Amino acid sequence: KDFTRQVVQKQGVSLDPRKPLFRNLERAVLAEAKSEENAKRMWRSVCYHNLVLNHMKTRAERPDQRAFWFGWKAALRLFQVLAPSDVLVCGSNRQKLNSFIEVAGCRPEEIRRTKVGSNTGASLRLHLPDMDIGVTFIRHPSAFFRREWSGFIHEAMPSCVQWLRTGTIPKGRGLNGRES
Q1: Is 54 helix (H, G, I), strand (E, B) or coil?
Q2: What digits encode the pLDDT tens for the residues 24-50?
Q3: Residue ranges of E strands in 30-169
Q4: What is the CA radius of gyration of the chain?
Q5: Rounded distance, CA 170 to CA 2, Å?
Q6: pTM for the complete prediction?
Q7: Sequence-ordered strand ranges (E) for the chain
């Protein structure tokens, strides 16, 4: 029931050095501004959502297109409630991206793909009623995560990154990058 909340508290906010997913995300988002204070602020300022809603029976089992499809349906409902300016998706595999395109009704040509090392990241603006959301897909940061993802994240969601790094929003800009 509260698994995700417990994981973020125990592994993110507590700054457990043995948890590469959390430490790699901090390095990518905070870059040279990484400090204990900024990392804790970051984990206390984000919403963390498990896209795959069903239980995997073994560690080797992987979600299929249908699992991602249902996860994106739930995520879009969550977006309507939380109205985020940006969403950072951990994992840029084809099934995850294709199911997002289908559920969100995006056109593939709206997606900007960028090669980062041997992987490809993707970013786009999702247009929903009363809001635009930046959606950025990166390689899953649990292992073999390259520092080059930091530049991709900073370019795709600059206002959000600045806010997470400093607690301030660029003058004249809202978190969603629009004039404020």
Answers
A1: coil
A2: 999 999 988 888 888 888 888 888 888
A3: 86-90, 112-116, 119-128, 131-138
A4: 16
A5: 34
A6: 0.87
A7: 86-90, 112-116, 119-128, 131-138
